[in-house]
Design goal:
The complex is a heterodimer of chains A (119) and B (191).
Chain A lengths: L1 E5 L10 H26 L1 H33 L2 H11 L4 H8 L6 H11 L1
Chain B lengths: L10 H9 L3 H23 L2 H17 L10 H19 L5 H13 L2 H17 L4 H12 L4 H8 L3 H19 L4 E5 L2
Helix pairs in contact in B: 1-2, 2-3, 2-4, 2-7, 3-4, 5-6, 6-9, 7-9, 8-9
The chains are: A mainly alpha (119), B mainly alpha (191).
Chain lengths: 119, 191
Amino acid sequence: MTEDRIDFSPLDPMRDAERFEEIVRSITAAAAGELAARRARGSVVGQVALWWGPLLAAAAITGIVSLTALARLQTTAPTETTEPGLAEAIGVPTQVAEWVRGDELPTPTELLVTLESEQ
Amino acid sequence: MASDKGPDLPEVLLVERARRGDAAAFEALVRRYYRAAHAVALAVLGNPMDAEDACQDAFLRALERLDRLRQPERFSAWLLQIVRNRARNFRSYRRVRSVLPLEEVRAASDEDTGREAEREELRRELKSALTELSEIQREVVLLHDLEGWKHREIGELLGLSEGMSRQHLMSARRLLRERLGTKLLKEYSDD
């Protein structure tokens, strides 16, 4: 079957090859940023670069919070209370810490009983 | 690996590569679908210059949203849907632009050869005749007669049956024939 088809070639955007190339260049140039971002997201270096900023920010926030907390502890806590706390914190039994601080030495029996009770 | 990035690669592969930021693949998609995109935009806007702007906008929008495309084999239909939407948005806030480009076209054609002027005249007549069709008629006739799409493909894009697509094509051609006479008619074998 043949049919009268309308000749739309005057409206064909590819008729003028030079103009068409200009259009393609214009679209690809405008897309360059998005394409580069996509390439970056896909590569290992890109992934690191992508996470570098947030990681750095998180580290900075953690550092600031830690330093503030430490500074507050140092200014408010009394010295005497921190020493037994520190000994206990590193696993030294309270009784042993007191012997170390005091002048009196424990007897072998006291030492044995204290250590056994800690186990 | 120049041949590996050629425009002859399957659509799905080009889409996957463009997704990963391959500029050559994206350019191949632009070259492959620009004419169809322009036909759809022209059908909605009726002005080739506005259609160009809408197409550029639509290709960029499509690239930005490429990750949302679940079926890469349906890229062309998906792209043309974006073109239609962009063109419609374009039309809603930028209705008046036809006067200035026409003046520019006339000024340019004075300096060009007679043949060029004749082509511009045909172009102007076609544009004018197209405005008398409905949007759906313009889309069907441009996709069929300019882009060479089959009724099945047009139906899929526009959500029509093949029969309806044929009907719109016949009405559009009849109206254009009445308006243009026989000067822009060609004999082709129909699909």
